[in-house]
Amino acid sequence: MRTYALRRVLQTIPILLIISILLFFLVRAAPGGPLSAARRNPNISLEQIEVLEEKLGLNDPLPVQYWRWLSGMLRGDLGDSIKFHRPVLEMIGERIPNTLLLVGVSFGITLLVAIPLGVLSARRPYSLFDYTTTTITFMGQSLPVYWLGLGLIVIFYVVLKNPFTGEPFFPGGGLNSVGREGDIPDMLWHLVLPVVALSLGWIAWYSRFLRSSMLDVLHEDYVRTARAKGARENVVYYKHAFRNAILPLVTLIALDLPSLFAGALFVETIFSWPGIGRLFWDAARGRDYPVLLGVVMIDAVLIITANILADLAYGWLDPQVKYD
Amino acid sequence: MTEETTLAAIQAQSMPRLIIRRLFKHRLAGLAIASLLTLVLFAVFASLSPYSPTDQTPSNSFQRPNSEHWFGTDELGRDIFTRILFGGRVSLAVGLISTFLSISLGVVIGALAGYFGGWTDSILMRVTDAFLTFPTIFVLIILGAFLREQPLPWLKNSVIVVIIIIAALSWMWPARLVRSLFLVIREREFVNATRALGGSHARIILSHILPNCIGPILVSGTLQMASAIITESGLSYLGFGVQPPTPTWGSILATAQTHVFRAPWLAFYPGAMIFITVMAINYIGDGLRDAFDPYVIHTGK
After folding, report:
1. CB contact under 8 A, B260 and A307
2. A290, A88 in Cβ contact below 8 A?
């Protein structure tokens, strides 16, 4: 198992190298370069731009620049933001807690709702409850997160007002109200709509998955054995079947990580939630390439790590799995 | 009834005809096909609208939905209904073409990996796994932002860029699916028989194994198309997909967000179109899955 883990880690190195080379050259081959915004700014003279180019090493050949960026990255230095003149790593570090809060709360709620939904609708397939759940989750899966988010803002911030105070029911975005930075209840208040927007689609997806996983497991021989030896239906269901049905969820979540990040990016953008996704969106609009590349590389490392951990966890949960 | 006539009756039902008949028996799938065809017709005949999707008449801005402008007008006085019809062209075309590309690439890679196994398999699957660990949305945004700016003339068209990048980041799912199907089917007796008779690799792959994979491939195609439409609209909504003045459902939604206080109703229509289209495609996929499944008993539900 240790050699397996080691091999998986070693295999990720070429993947990361390929991602980094492709993206670096794509971003830097665009005409105008990273200073194109500065070039259009009438307050910055051509001489200043030349000085800047020299200072940032933008006149060196691209492979040299790539090597400098790569070796910096290996030392934990992702470079400085072109726009904010701050270390990229520091900017990402500031945003990570906000993203983790949003994604963590949404994912917790997703599991709390999706697992009972999926398990109960598999308990009595084709019952009224199952039919209703299946239809609603089918719709939920087709609902684009950006439309849902925008819809929540329109309904709970723009249109509906509290009849007593005339204030909107929920804030339309941001981490805190102005002047209440660091206020926890205020922040939770701001968290409601983004969490609803983010978790609805996830709930639909995971409850559907769990329903079909439960139905698959219920056809297995060990379930028949459990029934044959006279175990009560609840024991068969929750002890024998459920445990096995939930196993594939581990791998699924790791594989889903890229799309989970995608959902978070949309929600952060719509609700101005100061997380990684919003940072990335702003950087993409401003062509702030060190920030862009830094976020992608950190996310790639996160996704690969999660996949390796999921594989190892699967082997630990299911003793039948052998690593060669 | 003699044995010959029963056999003739079964043979008269060719596979495609059987599938189509079973698909329409799935009531929701039938409804979904009808709605999708309506959407396609609306997109095809979008130019019959008396309004232009791009000409601006600012004096006419932010009209509420009325008998002249069914969905109202935007900040530049453009008719939203017309823009949504034209946007449907882009969304449906991007969905269809990128799905076709991604499925084609996925089938080729999956078939080669699954059929030949060994080194071919491990190299191709290593590449596939590498693509699966890409942080998709971030890479899509970078590609969407920078590919357009490269000094290549054929990349100037943002619709083509979006089609390419969506296909380039989604072929892995059909590749894995086709590989797993090939791994099973290549061991079956009829494949061995063909091999024993001296059938070439190409013949075994193309006319013996691949036809047996059509069902799952079509079902995964519907999933791909649904997610391609959501991705295209999402990218355009963020500003890195199809570029203005070409209208798309995503970019209309982005305008709606900018003017959410002036015209909150604007946000409804483009999103509803995405939702309806994606749901219709998903229901068709569901119907296809049942139609290809020989074990499903058709009660007409």
Report:
1. no
2. yes
pLDDT of residue B5: 52
For B107-120, give one letter per residue: b (16+ CB within 10 A) or e.
Answer: bebbbbbbbeeeee
**Burial group, residue A231, by CB count within 10 angstroms (0-12, 13-18, 19+):** middle
> B170 CB contacts (<8 Å, ≥6 apart)?
B98, B102, B224, B227, B228
Q: How far is A260 from chain B (nearest CA, A)?
A: 10
* Distance between CA atoms of residues B248 and B87, nearest Å: 4
Q: pLDDT tens across B85-107, in order?
A: 888 989 999 999 999 999 999 99
Cβ of B260 under 8 Å from any chain A Cβ?
yes
Burial of A138 (0-12, 13-18, 19+ CB in 10 A): middle
Whether A95 and A283 have beta carbons less than 8 Å apart is answered as no
Q: What gap in Å lies between CA A67 and CA A70, rounded to an integer?
A: 5
Residue A240 is classified by DSSP as I
Minimum-distance CB partner of A258 among B134, B240, B260:
B134
Q: How far is B68 from chain A (nearest CA, A)?
A: 25
Q: Across-strand partners of A80?
A: A87
Cα separation, A205 vs A183, whole angstroms:
33
B231-281 confidence digits (pLDDT tens): 999 999 998 988 888 889 998 888 888 887 777 788 888 889 999 999 999
Separation of alpha carbons A293 and A27, rounded Å: 9
Largest CA distance in chain B: 77
Nearest chain B Cα to A138, which residue? B279
Q: Residue B1: pLDDT above 50?
A: no
Residue A215 CB partners (closer than 8 Å, separation 6+): A122, A125
> What residues contact A110, with CB distance under 8 A and at least 6 apart?
A199, A202, A203, A206
Q: What angle do CA B24, B28, B33 make, to 5 degrees?
A: 60
Contact indicator for A179, A131 with CB cutoff of 8 Å: no
The CA distances from residue A117 to A237, B116, B279, in Å, are 14, 42, 21
- In angstroms, the CA B158 to CA B144 distance is 8
| Interchain contact B257–A (C-beta under 8 A) | yes
Tell me how far apart the alpha carbons of residues A183 and A186 are, in angstroms, rounded to a whole number. 5
Instruction: Let me know: does A141 contact A255? Beta carbons within 8 Å.
Output: no
* Yes or no, beta carbons of B238 and A280 under 8 Å apart: no
Q: How far apart are CA B250 and CA B144, in angstroms?
A: 14
Determine contact: B133 vs chain A, CB below 8 A: yes
Chain B nearest-CA distance from A138, in A, is 8
How far B9 CA sits from the closest chain A CA (Å)? 33
From chain B residues 282-301, the ones with a CB under 8 A of any chain A CB are: 282-283, 286
Tokens 């198992």 belong to A1
By residue count, chain A amounts to: 324
